[in-house]
Design brief:
Chain lengths: 271, 102
């Protein structure tokens, strides 16, 4: 049975698209047929992060409006088997997302895919509501920072009140916390919220902690989901998060300050 | 407090600690407001209608108040009944308190 996962946060710029790309790619790498949908109508970016921006012909909105077939709009990833991207429109606005239209496409995708990842726009307006409405799972992307934590709490309230599962009184959407841009050194200095503090405040299960890493920008520069950079700590942390999502028990890494060796210190090497 | 604490310089809460504390306070308020009982005005109106069937009272003589504590909330309904037609103007107050899970 296909599962719909929404990647959401309330606040913008915390890493929803980066996480959607990395998480979706991670699921596909483990053999699950996965589709990542960009719900950020008018501000599309998933195509850039996935490196398929030059292959976009039709988009999500074209399919909703019946101007193209779903198979024409889906872009197959060239690196990873089982991975597809459904880009969104850059020219229309969020009103183009109708509940019936989105539902019809999700139902069609469910027949073919194991996982459908809805990359939500920021905010709590129509685009974000449509991205979370049909979800079975919600991954809440949060930075260890006050405005992000507050907005995450807000979006959790929206999920608990306005998702289809909530409206129909079904089993609630399963919530998962993904803390991104975590910097253990700053945490140790008392400059950044500890992951334990964020967990205590939001009180939802922890899926993963992605360390602040230069690899994320590097990967986005070249249009590669960071999970494919398996030497980077961020890539490994995303891969671990995917494993945990699938039920594996994996210890959290990159949460403590790494002791630098003598030569590292001598050369002032950074990660 | 031990005698040693006296000599220790008081440690200032770190920026992260302050962030946590501020978040806990603001979210406690926002969460309470989020599922704020917007049924209260309706409840007040319906209570009034029921009471009016038996006793004639003024519209402003019913007060409904909700109080939230950690773990439970209290719903307080105050009905001020009119003074008996004869005798001194006395107000009898009936108080109903209902406790439920927040």
């Amino acid at each position: 049975m296909a599962k719909i996962i929404v990647m959401t946060s309330g606040k913008g710029g915390v890493g929803k698209t980066t996480s959607s790309a990395a998480f979706g790619t991670g699921l596909a790498l483990r053999g699950f047929k996965t589709c990542i949908i960009d719900f950020d109508v008018g501000l599309r970016n998933l195509d850039l992060i996935m490196g398929c921006e030059r292959r976009v012909v039709f988009d999500f909105i074209n399919v909703i409006n019946g101007e193209a077939r779903l198979s024409q709009a889906l872009i197959k990833d060239k690196r990873v088997e089982n991975l597809y991207i459904l880009p969104t429109s850059q020219t229309r606005d969020k009103d183009a997302l109708t509940e019936q239209g989105v539902e019809k496409i999700l139902e069609e995708l469910k027949k073919e895919f194991d996982y459908i990842i809805c990359d939500s726009p920021a905010g709590i307006e129509r685009g974000a509501l449509m991205a979370l409405y049909f979800a079975d799972h919600a991954i809440i992307v949060t930075n260890p920072e006050v405005s992000s934590v507050r907005d995450s709490d807000r979006i959790l309230g929206v999920i608990q009140a306005k998702s289809r599962r909530a409206e129909k009184g079904e089993a609630p959407v399963q919530e998962h916390l993904l803390v991104t841009r975590y910097d253990p050194e700053r945490v140790e200095k008392g400059e950044m919220l500890k992951v334990e503090d964020v967990l205590e405040i939001l009180a939802i299960p922890l899926l993963g902690i992605i360390p602040e890493s230069p690899a994320v920008l590097r990967a986005s520069n070249v249009g590669m989901p960071v999970v494919l950079d398996d030497k980077s700590n961020a890539g490994q942390a995303y891969s671990d998060a995917v494993g945990r999502f699938l039920g594996e028990t994996i210890e959290h890494r990159f949460v403590k300050v790494e002791k630098k060796g003598f030569f590292d210190r001598l050369l002032r090497r950074t990660a | 407090m031990s005698i040693f604490d006296f000599f220790r310089t008081p440690k200032k809460a770190s920026a992260a600690d302050q962030a946590k504390e501020r978040l806990q306070i603001v979210l406690a308020h926002e969460r309470a407001g989020r599922d704020s009982p917007d049924f209260l005005p309706q409840l007040q109106k319906e209570l009034l209608d029921v009471i009016k069937k038996y006793v004639s009272i003024d519209d402003d003589k019913v007060a409904v108040k909700l109080d939230r504590a950690s773990g439970y909330s209290t719903l307080e309904v105050n009905v001020e009944l009119p003074a008996p037609a004869k005798g001194a103007a006395r107000a009898a107050a009936g108080k109903v308190a209902a406790t439920g899970n927040a």
